[in-house]
Amino acid sequence: MKYYQREGLLPEGVRSAPNQVDYGDAHVHRVRLIRALLETGGLSVAATKEVIAALDAEDAPWRRPSASRSTR
Asked: Where is the HTH merR-type domain (predicted)?
């Protein structure tokens, strides 16, 4: 976890004690994604950072409402 945090792939958890950090479901999902990209996808850490940054981007196409969707 700390390695992924140092590499900028994973946000820090919430410190619950001086030597303990709590991680939520979002962290678990992110670690699964990181491991899939690195191990299954064969991506480098640098390429994984690019994918994560694209997924997190505020202006990512999938974050915009689709013009083809109809409202009811």
From this structure: 1-54
Tell me the pLDDT tens digit for each residue of 10-46. Answer: 999 999 999 999 999 999 999 999 999 999 999 999 9
Contact 47, 39 (CB under 8 A): no
Q: What's the pTM value of the predicted model, to 2 decimals?
A: 0.76
User: 32 is in which domain, residue-wise?
Assistant: 1-8+21-56
> Residue 67: left (phi > 0), alpha (psi -120 to 50), or beta?
alpha
Q: How far is CA 50 from CA 34, 41, 54, in A?
A: 11, 14, 6
